[in-house]
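User: I'm writing a tutorial on reading structure tokens. Could you give me a worked example: one chain, its sequence, then its tokens, then a sentence or two explaining what the tokens reveal?
Assistant: Sure. Here is the example chain.
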Amino acid sequence: MRYAGMVLLVVGLFTLTRCGEPDTKGERVTQQGSPLFDSAEYATVARRLRDAFVLGDSVYCDSVLPLFDDTALARMHPERVTDGFVSHLIIHERAQPAILARLDELVVYSGAPIMRNWRDYVKARSLQDAGERLQAIAASESDPRFQADKDTVGIATVSKRIGMLYLDLDEP
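And here are its predicted structure tokens:
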């Protein structure tokens, strides 16, 4: 009888500690054990993602996005998650609200400056695409942050976008 009581107590304590709320900063925690933790696998996907991005292959970008949607990956390798989400958001003509919202969650969860900078760039780009040019210029304040992080791709991308915004303002 005493042994059964101890077993029941141990099982009860184990259940109580395992049934608590997850440690999250966002609404949804996805830890799927992404294969992108492996550097060789990531290098292969990143190379194909770059090619797909340049060639306008949105199908490939859509197909690999779930590999990047991993909160543990966002915390440990935020640059990898940024590659996947930003490529997906830019390859489409308009940013998809659900994907942008998920990127927002991952930015909050990871707290990584690189993710925050690129998320802000994508939002400014969405404003430009919606015809809100002045608001897009104001939202393009991420350039100094890219400079502080020495992110040359970010600096070039934001600078090009700001130039295009100013050119658009001169149109009748």
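What the tokens reveal: The mean pLDDT is 78. The two ends are 88 Å apart (CA to CA).
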